[in-house]
Amino acid sequence: FAWSRDQWQTIGCESKWRWPPFLRVQYSDPVLEEQYRRLMYEDLRETAKALGFLGLLAILLSILVGVFTEHHGDDLCIDVIARAVFTVPFALFPFLYALLDKPLVGLYCWYHKRYHNKNALTDDGLTDAYCRVERFVLALIFIVSIALIHMDGRITYHHDWGYVWSSKEDYYIVYRSAHWTPVCAVVAGWMAFKCDSFLTLLMHVTHVSAFAVFELLCKLPGNWRGIIPYAIVNALFYIGSRQIELFTRTTLYQKNQVHKEKESKKLLLESFSQLVGIAAWEWDTSAPIDKGCYQTKVIEHLT
Predict the structure, then answer these.
(1) Burial of 73 (0-12, 13-18, 19+ CB in 10 A)
(2) Is residue 8 in a domain?
(3) Would you call 281 helix, strand, or coil by DSSP?
(4) 275: number of CA atoms within 13 Å, CB side?
């Protein structure tokens, strides 16, 4: 992380922790950091709406496939797809989150204004405080879901079938998609928190660690090879999140610099116009009265 120190410092960022350096970064300007957090909240809301819509479609698809298909021995391709789609966690939660987001924010702000000091916080301050809590809860749900999703497909173990789940007492189904569902969960979590590289790193470490723990509990020799592709996939996602955060922070920093330059030029022009306006009333006494004009020595020096 130290090798990218110059890149972060160029855009006005500093390491939030002394060690490890630049594992978690923030702007040295608190106002700019607050703007970036608001951008993350907005991106999280839009992503949650998209995930909620896809989750609703996944639930409906799994129900339809489960209703119109039957189990016929080993010919379970359609049922495997249905199970893989149905077991994607937190599919319903983002949908409800997208629907109830604005009402909850309004209720939160109204409660604090009604029962607390009305002048203590502004609407923006209350909204930011709510977003912090909301983002923390959603991140916790994603992390727990990513950790526990490895249980799916490993609930029952049979020597002849391997990893299976049982719908009846003596009926086993080979769960061929057991390794794809956790990847889908990681992709969903990465999409939601891609602008926060530290949080994505925490999710990826949790994902790989949970896989190792469940493999240890299953006590299957030789199946540890599956941790290698998981580690590679999670490392690639983390690198992508790191680059997205760098790009987003760089864009925000450049926009802020352009805005500051425009404001400074605007102030300079306003001050110049004020000087010109004052000097315009000072007549040039060296010229005849009938040829007098607003061109004064002050304006000549200014121009």
Answers:
(1) exposed
(2) no
(3) coil
(4) 14
Range of the domain at 207: 30-245
Closest CA to 172 of 153, 192, 185: 153
**Mean pLDDT to the nearest integer, 218-239:** 73
Report the domain count for the chain: 1
DSSP 103-120: HHHHHHHHHHHHHS-TTT
Q: State pLDDT tens for residues 65-124.
A: 666 665 544 445 555 555 555 455 555 555 666 666 667 767 777 777 776 655 555 556
Average pLDDT estimate for 274-292: 55
Burial (CB count within 10 angstroms: exposed 0-12, middle 13-18, buried 19+), residue 158: exposed
Judge whether 4 lies within some domain: no
SS3 27: strand
Specify if 198 maps to a domain: yes
Residue 257 lies in a domain: no
- Measured distance CA(211)–CA(159) in Å, rounded: 20
Q: How many helices (H) and strands (E) does the chain have?
A: 9, 5
Residue 303: is its pLDDT beyond 60? Answer: no
**What type of residue sits at position 175?**
Y
Q: Would you place residue 173 in the very low, low, confident or very high pLDDT band (cuts 50, 70, 90)?
A: very low
Residues 6+ apart with CB under 8 A from 278: none
Which residues, 6+ apart, have CB-to-CB distance to 41 below 8 Å?
131, 135
Q: What is the pLDDT of residues 1-60, one digit of tens each?
A: 445 677 888 888 888 877 777 777 888 888 888 888 888 888 887 887 777 777 777 767
Neighbours of 202 (CB within 10 A): 18
Residue with the two structure tokens 């298909």: 69
Q: List CB contacts of 90: < 8 A, sequence separation 6 or more.
A: 55, 141, 142, 145, 188
